[in-house]
Amino acid sequence: MIDIAVNFTDGMFKGVYHGKNCHLPDIATVLNRAWSAGVDRIIVTGGSLEESREALAIAETDARLFCTVGVHPTRCSEFEESGDPEKHYQDLFSLAKEGMQKGKVVAIGECGLDYDRLQFCPADIQKKYFGKQFELAYATKLPMFLHMRAAAADFCEIVERNKNRFTGGVAHSFTGSALDRDKLLSFDKMYIGVNGCSLKTAENLDVMKGIPVERMMIETDSPYCEIKNTHAGMKFVKSTWPSKKKEKYDQECIVKGRNEPCLVRQVLEVVAGYKGLGDINQLSSTLYHNTCRVFFPQDLDSAADALLSGHHNTN
């Protein structure tokens, strides 16, 4: 499995919850659990210039970690608050290039539109700098890691206008309607990312069922978006881990209420269960291939080359 969305820059992975220090930083422990659960790679999300720098530094600590560079819609005010929006853009571009040279930056993002949280950034600023980040995608030839919340019409209009400026992308943490889903699927280079927030209600599950597995990726968006006991998808979950409250931290247990990458296995199980797919390994393989096609295309080239050379050898 590949978890396409992990917020390792979040304070919870440093042991800080609501400003209170509860335990030591534990990314290494969290990663060990993920690798043991069958996670093969993780994409660390960048949501601002500063956060993207931190995401790159984290990605450099393990060969299986990668990251994005971009500005989240709720933080797009940082372009103008920097005092020089063009320099801010150039700094993002330089960071993306540096990360690409290191083989670590695999997407521009997290960027898009979020009209649920306009108190953090007004819609006009969000739209302006969502559009601007397509320039980054075009200049770097990187795919896009996208965020769409309560903004489908404007989001799809901006994507439509820029559809020839990016190589592909994923609308991650999808929680929209069937109509929103179908609008996204109308872009042939667009995939949809599913996590616990995508699987909360019976309606969410029905919408998810209509996403072809060939156009889907899975994620945790940890430390957020866990699958909770109250969620409609929970009845399909088979894998569980012991958990303890943060105040009683134990590195052998996950922290109650904090999502982490090993739990992407549960997302896979809910997708398989609700879609009625008996072969979870085949599903996992398809989702893995989708993710490589967009974010790790060189791996598909290597695999194809290996396959071809294998055929030549047997011939």
TrEMBL record:
The keyword Transmembrane does not apply. GO terms for molecular function: 3'-5'-DNA exonuclease activity; metal ion binding. Keywords: Hydrolase, Metal-binding, Nuclease. InterPro entries: Metal_Hydrolase, TatD-like, TatD-type_Hydrolase. A divalent metal cation 2 binds at H147, H172. GO terms for cellular component: cytosol. This is TatD related DNase. It comes from Brassica oleracea var. oleracea.
